[in-house]
Sequence to fold (65 residues):
Amino acid sequence: MDFKTDNLVFLYLACILAGFAIIKISTTAAILISLKPILIIIAVIVILLFSFLIIWKGIKTLMKK
Fold:
């Protein structure tokens, strides 16, 4: 992987962690109780999307070798 791809992978990992943070915050904050279902759906989509992107980048890198 080149330097630009490495930065993207770290960005994707940060997005996955942000998704988990959204799940954790939405389950503990009393203010966000009404938004909990929407926030959990958004967080799961974010986690799945960026996990898929990391896997895709890995497969593309393996196919180049």
